[in-house]
Amino acid sequence: MSPQTLLVRYRALWDSATRHPFLEGVRTGALPEPAFRRWLVQDYHFVRGLLTSQAYVLAAAPRPDQRVVASGLLALVDELDWFEGHARERGLALDVQVHPTCREYVDFLQSLRHAPYPAQITALWACERAYLDAWTGAAPGAEPYRDFVRRWTQPAFAQYVASLESCASRALGPASAAEQEAAEEAFRRVAELERAFWEMTWEGGEP
């Protein structure tokens, strides 16, 4: 099994995770402002949680993968600064309650510290690949959102996602049947939670 196998096997689910009215609104400029504000605040909290879960992946990573995973950790620290800057520009408070959908996603990723490494690295790759695919579909984005589209479609980010895919491929190749099953389940769950996150930002519903 390879990461590409998972994308093919779960194509319909993946499409639902990476194509959404929220993203179409980003592309056309028709995105309702409350949805964008909700996404920005909750995605900030998601990144905070991802930082912790990725630290667990780094701790489990074999030597050849450490530099890739560590580079992603540093990028997440920078991303938190970036989110904080955009929140200040828009007068958004970030010290708000985390939405249950966001909490569920973060809790799942952090629970993978007990999973085999192939599942951990596959989930991390799936998270980042989902964002690459989602924002690429929204490109170039309407002017109010273009900076956000650029962030997750720039060549450096695409290269990082490709490097994670290489890590996942190396882990999945020699993995046992049980490890491959855990990785497949992690991929499927990430896709479901990505879709749920877009739904949360689009439909609203304060915690």
Question: Can you walk me through this structure?
Answer:
79% of the residues lie in helices and 0% in strands. The chain has helices spanning 3-9, 11-18, 21-28, 33-60, 63-90, 100-111, 117-138, 146-151, 155-172, 177-203. It has a single domain (3-9, 32-128, 155-202), classed as Heme oxygenase-like (Heme Oxygenase, Chain A). The chain is mainly α and 207 residues long. The radius of gyration is 16 Å and the shape is globular. It is built from ten helices and no strands. Helix 4 runs parallel beside helix 6 (100-111).
**CATH homologous superfamily annotation:** Heme oxygenase-like
User: What's the number of helices?
Assistant: 10
Strand content: under 5%
For this structure, what is the CATH class?
Mainly Alpha
Count of the separate structural domains: 1
Measured on Cα atoms, how large is the radius of gyration? Answer: 16 Å
Which ranges are low-confidence, i.e. pLDDT below 50, for 5 or more consecutive residues?
none
Overall pLDDT score: 95
Give the overall form. Answer: globular
Fold-level CATH name: Heme Oxygenase, Chain A
**Main sheet attributes: strand count, strand direction, barrel closure:** none
Helix/strand-derived category reads: mainly alpha
**Helix content range:** over 70%
List SSEs in N-to-C order.
Answer: HHHHHHHHHH
The overall strand count is 0
How widely separated are the two ends?
Answer: 39 Å
Just name the CATH architecture.
Up-down Bundle
